[in-house]
């Protein structure tokens, strides 16, 4: 009998999917890819299916189905994406960005599958509901974000009462040294040029505004049950240190490594074990300089909203995330200025104070109302 781990990869054609496939190629004797999904890219999905001989295949958006040439049958639509997440396996990797990954990620833990989650929006919007469900079904939720993976690796859960605070590092994105008065003129092509990571457009823009770090503050609070005031953010352009855990006795444990999504993915897929990835060896002697700065809240006001949303933990994170998704989409389509992204989110947060969500349907409802408010604001800006 094979002792390979069975993996289902949701969002196989995106940047997380690409990193995950690189990891699987390096370790074919360890993993068995039994399910993949894509949203639009049927051609790349076909190549993945044929290369890894994947039996369960879903294309969420049926309109490109004619481009599929994989050797296994294709299922179509969001309902089948949810069914794919329920396929019995060792772990589901959720690499779908935005709220479109919510239902499938929730379906995975509802059936008892462990979940390696790169989709921070799902945890930001439905954190408590996700955690309660994972505990009920004894399903692990393992972060794939490099910063949260770092905290997972440094946090001694047996010694949690001695935790003082944690530090999430941020590269600062492409506009770290851009004068504040120049930000309003920045175009989508400027915002998606991340200096360190190769990511999708949405998350690249989030890095440029620092909304990604605001979302990560909320995600860290959910995942590790840490209050907002115990979460610090430090700007660290080299992005060698990914996260630090500070204990009350003055000890600080940090996670270091070259920026590469393969490592946090491997940590999530093997936790608490580790794999030999045969990557470039990290040595402090090869790093000439590590720099750190306090965040500039005037230049990156979005960052502060992460802590603000935690003051209202049941609802504001949903509104923050929904408004940001709408505003980033409008910016990428050249409908609003770069600096308007924050303005749209801020105005939506101040306008809409929703009810407390009891289930995923409530989360979707609040998300929908917040999106509509944001769209109204964007119309006014034009």
Explain this structure.
- This protein has 382 residues and is of the alpha/beta class.
- The protein has two domains: 139 residues, Rossmann fold, CATH 3.40.50.720; 205 residues, RNA polymerase sigma factor, region 2, helix turn helix motif (Rna Polymerase Sigma Factor, Chain: A, Orthogonal Bundle).
- 42% of the residues lie in helices and 15% in strands.
- It is built from 14 helices and eleven strands.
- Strands 4-3-2-1-5-6-7 form a seven-stranded parallel β-sheet, with helices on both faces. The protein has a four-stranded mixed β-sheet with strand order 9-8-10-11, covered by helices on one side.
- Helix 1 links the parallel strand 1 and strand 2.
- Helix 4 packs parallel to helix 5 and helix 6 packs parallel to helix 9.
- The termini are far apart.
Observed structural traits:
382 residues; alpha/beta; Rossmann fold; Rna Polymerase Sigma Factor, Chain: A; 2 domains; seven-stranded parallel beta sheet; four-stranded mixed beta sheet; 15% strand
């Amino acid at each position: 009998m094979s002792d390979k781990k069975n993996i289902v990869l949701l969002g196989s054609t995106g940047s997380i999917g690409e990193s995950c496939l690189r990891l699987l190629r390096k370790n074919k004797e360890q993993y068995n890819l039994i399910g993949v999904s894509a949203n639009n890219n049927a051609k790349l999905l076909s190549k993945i299916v044929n290369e890894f001989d994947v039996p369960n295949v879903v294309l969420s958006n049926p309109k490109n189905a004619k481009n599929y040439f994989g050797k296994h049958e294709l299922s179509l639509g969001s309902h089948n994406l949810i069914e794919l997440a329920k396929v019995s396996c060792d772990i589901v990797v959720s690499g779908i960005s935005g709220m479109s990954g919510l239902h499938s990620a929730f379906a995975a833990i509802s059936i008892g599958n462990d979940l390696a989650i790169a989709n921070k929006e799902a945890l930001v919007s439905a954190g408590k509901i996700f955690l309660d469900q994972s505990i009920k079904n004894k399903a692990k939720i393992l972060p794939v974000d490099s910063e949260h993976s770092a905290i997972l690796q440094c946090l001694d859960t047996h010694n949690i009462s001695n935790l003082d605070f944690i530090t999430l590092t941020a590269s600062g994105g492409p506009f770290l040294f851009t004068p504040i008065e120049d930000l309003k003129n920045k175009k989508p092509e400027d915002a998606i040029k991340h200096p360190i990571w190769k990511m999708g457009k949405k998350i690249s823009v989030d890095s440029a505004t620092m909304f990604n770090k605001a979302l990560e503050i909320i995600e860290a609070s959910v995942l590790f049950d840490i209050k907002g005031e115990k979460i610090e953010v430090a700007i660290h352009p080299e992005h060698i240190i990914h996260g630090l855990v500070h204990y009350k006795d003055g000890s600080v444990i940090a996670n270091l490594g070259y920026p590469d999504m393969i490592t946090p993915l491997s940590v999530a897929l093997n936790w608490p074990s580790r794999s030999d990835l045969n990557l470039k060896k990290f040595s402090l002697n090869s790093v000439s300089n590590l720099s750190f700065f306090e965040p500039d809240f005037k230049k990156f006001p979005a960052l502060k909203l992460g802590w603000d949303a935690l003051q209202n933990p049941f609802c504001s994170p949903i509104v923050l995330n929904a408004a940001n998704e709408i505003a980033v989409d409008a910016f990428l389509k050249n409908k609003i200025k770069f600096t308007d992204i924050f303005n749209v989110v801020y105005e939506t947060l101040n306008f809409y104070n929703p009810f407390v969500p009891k289930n995923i349907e409530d989360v979707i409802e609040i998300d929908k109302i917040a999106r509509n408010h944001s769209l109204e604001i964007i119309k006014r800006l034009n």
